[in-house]
Each structure stands twice: as C-alpha cells, then as structure tokens.
Design a protein that fits this description.
Strand order of the largest sheet: 8-7-6-5-4-3-2-1-15-14-13-12-11-10-9
Organism: Streptomyces enissocaesilis
Protein name: Glycolipid-binding domain-containing protein
Number of strands: 15
Strand content: over 45%
Order of helices and strands: EEEEEEEEEHEEEEEE
Helix content: under 10%
Largest sheet: 15 strands, mixed
Oligomer: single chain
C-alpha cells in the first residue's frame, strides 16, 4: 500500500497550493485512493476518496473542499451530487462522459487504468468531468492521452517501470507530460511527489 505526500502548485507560476497526504492500494474489485489535503500553512483544505473498478470506471467518488462536497459514480455516463457548505442545497449532474478528473493525482492514475494504453499506440480521446477548486464546480473537458514510452529505472528495491504519457487538452491545444510508476504519479503539471514510504503497487 503506497503511502506518501505530494506537493501541489500552480502549474503556470509555481505558486504553492498545499500538500496531499495519500495512501492507495489495488484490491479484488479495482483500486482505491484516499487523501487529506492541506494548505501551504498546514490547515486542512479538503479530502479525496476515489474507488475505481477493475476496468478503471469510478464506482465511488467523494470530494471535500472549502465545505463543498461531491459524491459521484459512473452511472449513465457519470453522475454526481454537489452539496453547498450550508448543506441546504444539493444539485445533481449527469454527463455522457467516461470518468472524473480534478487537481488530485488520483485522477491521473484512474484515467490510465481506464484507458490501458500501450507504447506507440495512437492517442486516445477521453471525455472527463473536472471539479475545479475551490468550490468543486463541474466542467466537462476533452483530452487525448498517448503512452509515449515505458522504461525501467534502477532503484534500491529493484527495477521500477515508469510510464511517460502525453496529455493534450483538446479545447486549448495545451500539451504536457505525466510520469507514472504503478499507482503513483512521479511528476505532472502542478504535482510533485515529495515523499513515498513504500514502493508503488504494480497493476496486473
């Protein structure tokens, strides 16, 4: 069960946004990721609880940020309920999309599990619902993902397979690289792995 800490920053000007303390693990029905998010000053800022099935589909998502809450799952596309800080208003949404995304590294791992890309294969288009900070506002976004290469890197615990993905935001044309080992993001825009207590899990 990998356990560690990511630092989060603005991908454009590198302003620190806080840290995400996480643990995650594959299980008999898929993969689960749980984290607590703190501000740069160390205050609690939110949490993520994401479970995907063995095909990478979100079977349960619970997000908290600034007292806003999201509960979602893959039902008729993706469906979610967004609750305001007072708890008096809840709005339901549904979009014919494949999965969810957001600022948490969890969503990058979940997308790779959904797409199951192989090196050199054509880029695959995916429609995602992003929940944007700080009020978890939903926004539908289209991306294309390609697995550029998988390389073994020597570590104290033996070789570690690192996958390099190229992700294109189709509405803006913006491109960026993501490096992932198993179920841990090594680097991505706005995300740096700062500490890891145990090696990443290897998916079957």
């Amino acid at each position: 069960m990998p356990r560690g800490r990511y630092s989060l920053h603005d991908p454009h000007d590198r302003t620190p946004l806080g840290e995400e303390h996480f643990h995650c693990a594959p299980g008999p029905s898929g993969w689960r990721y749980v984290s607590q998010i703190t501000t740069p000053s160390g205050d609690h800022a939110g949490s993520v609880d994401l479970a995907v099935d063995e095909l990478g589909r979100p079977i349960r998502l619970e997000l908290h940020a600034a007292s806003w809450q999201i509960r979602g799952a893959a039902i008729d596309g993706v469906t979610w309920v967004r609750t305001d800080p007072t708890g008096t208003h809840a709005t339901e949404g549904n979009v014919p999309a494949h999965a969810f995304t957001g600022t948490s590294p969890a969503f990058l791992i979940a997308t790779t599990r959904l797409l199951r890309l192989t090196p050199g294969s054509p880029a695959t288009r995916v429609r995602l619902v992003a929940f944007t900070d700080p009020v978890l506002a939903p926004r539908t976004t289209d991306q294309s993902w390609a697995l550029l290469r998988s390389e073994a890197h020597a570590t104290d615990n033996g070789p570690l397979m690192v996958d390099e993905y190229q992700v294109n935001a189709l509405e803006t044309g913006e491109q960026h690289q993501i490096h992932i080992a198993g179920d841990v993001v090594l680097s991505a825009p706005g995300i740096e792995l700062e500490h890891l207590e145990t090696p990443p899990s290897a998916f079957p």
